């Protein structure tokens, strides 16, 4: 009888012969465990959240308010499968702030109410980011009023949902090595207006607004074993160390995890070291925005692409879930029907004619092989203490 690893290796070369990424670059198979693949078996005890809970993990997804309101199947699958949700858009600065003096909470309130109704936890995403800023920002926010505007925003939004948020992405994507600063900090509008201390200020204010939420720093491009990721990981860890040393209340690191199905880079060592370093600093770790872009797979056959995507899910999750500091896995959406990667062609550079299939459910809400890969990865993960 072959072991799972041997079985994977045997199927390592896809029919199109592409080298796939991962710590073992040619792992491609997602072999659902016996009894796990029947459609009837994916609800209740067979759901992602049930399998995750057995290991002390949270299973989550980003949510769009449009489909949540208009598609019954979206709502049903979300409630069945996940115990953690995050607004894909609705809690960002711009969407919450139609004018400098007003807040629009309709969508965010609805998401929080939906989560409460279904016994789910909520991640807040995010207070401070260089994107999703409102049209009025550039003409209204100045060096004189930026601190006030940022802190009032955090106090108002954080205060409204106080006690209802498992974790807040307080600052999102603050590192951009190519901006040329020795500390790697991104020259974001907030940075330019307030200076590097905008980060400390944001975390202190967030703690004041909601003492119950885990305050998270969320970043992308820190997943691979390549030069760009190495540099970004180093800058991210240096930032976290600086914040901790300055007494800023940071509780968790979010590793976004937007992954390519086919890449010249692999992952493994750097990720493991990153998670261990975060753990040494006393941080929890969350996989916050996982998806696997299959744009680079030359093969057109959907089942074959799904198989490859599922293999990358499995390999990635096996890598990160090995560490017990990792407490939650969220995909960035859950159905291929609604993924940001299909939004513009810029994420489908190789095959702009094709819709991507990066998520655990296909466009018709059928579980894909990635679903089973995620669920199996939960099963194989060591048990841990649940998120604090
Ligand atoms: O997926 C999100 C997309 O629908 C929004 O238009 C965009 C701007 O608000 O943000 C996307 O989500 C991003 C997330 O907030 C931060 N990490 C990268 C995500 C994909 O761009």
Residues in β-strands, percent: 5-15%
What is the number of helical segments per DSSP (H or I, 4+ residues)?
14
Work out the count of structural domains. Answer: 1
Major sheet summary line = 8 strands, parallel, barrel
Number of separate strands? 9
Radius of gyration: 20 Å
Would you spell out the secondary-structure blueprint of this structure?
Blueprint: H1 4-10, H2 48-53, E1 58-63, H3 65-70, H4 72-81, E2 84-87, H5 93-96, H6 106-117, E3 121-128, H7 137-140, H8 146-160, E4 167-172, H9 189-194, H10 198-209, E5 214-219, H11 227-245, E6 252-255, E7 258-260, H12 269-280, E8 284-293, H13 302-321, E9 326-331, H14 369-380
Parallel strand pairs: 1-2, 1-9, 2-3, 3-4, 4-5, 5-6, 6-8, 7-8, 8-9
Helix pairs in contact: 8-10, 11-12, 13-14
Bound molecules: ligand 9MR.
């Amino acid at each position: 009888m072959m072991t799972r690893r041997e079985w994977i290796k045997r199927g390592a070369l896809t029919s199109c012969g592409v080298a796939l990424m991962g710590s073992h670059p040619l792992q491609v198979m997602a072999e659902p465990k016996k009894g796990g693949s029947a459609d009837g078996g994916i609800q209740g005890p067979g759901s992602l959240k049930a399998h995750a809970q057995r290991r002390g993990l949270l299973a989550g997804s980003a949510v769009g308010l449009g489909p949540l309101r208009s598609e019954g199947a979206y709502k049903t699958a979300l409630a069945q499968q996940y115990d953690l949700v995050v607004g894909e858009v609705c809690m960002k600065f711009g969407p919450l702030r139609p004018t400098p003096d007003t807040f629009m909470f309709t969508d965010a309130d609805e998401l929080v109410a939906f989560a409460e109704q279904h016994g789910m936890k909520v991640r807040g995403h995010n207070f401070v980011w260089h994107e999703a800023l409102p049209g009025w920002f550039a003409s209204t926010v100045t060096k004189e009023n930026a601190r006030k505007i940022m802190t009032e925003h955090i106090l108002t939004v954080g205060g409204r949902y106080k006690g209802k948020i498992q974790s807040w992405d307080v600052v999102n994507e603050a590192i951009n090595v190519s901006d040329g600063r020795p500390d790697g900090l991104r020259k974001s509008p907030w940075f330019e207006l307030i200076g590097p201390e905008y980060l400390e200020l944001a975390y202190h204010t967030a703690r004041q607004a909601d003492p119950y939420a885990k305050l998270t720093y969320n970043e992308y491009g820190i997943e691979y074993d390549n030069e760009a990721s190495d540099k970004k990981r180093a800058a991210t860890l240096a930032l976290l160390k600086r914040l901790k040393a300055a007494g800023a209340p940071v509780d968790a690191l979010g590793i976004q995890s937007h992954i390519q199905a086919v890449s010249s880079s692999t992952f493994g060592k750097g990720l493991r070291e990153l998670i261990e370093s975060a753990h040494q600093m006393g941080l929890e770790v969350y996989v916050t925005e996982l998806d696997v872009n299959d744009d680079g797979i030359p093969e057109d056959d959907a089942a074959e692409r799904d198989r490859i995507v599922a293999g990358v899910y499995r390999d990635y999750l096996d890598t990160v879930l090995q560490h017990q500091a990792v407490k939650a896995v969220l995909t960035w959406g859950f159905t291929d029907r609604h993924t940001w990667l299909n939004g513009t062609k810029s994420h489908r550079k190789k095959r702009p004619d094709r819709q991507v299939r990066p998520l655990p459910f296909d466009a018709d809400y059928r579980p894909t092989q990635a679903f089973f890969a995620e669920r199996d990865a939960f099963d194989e993960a060591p048990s841990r203490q649940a998120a604090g």
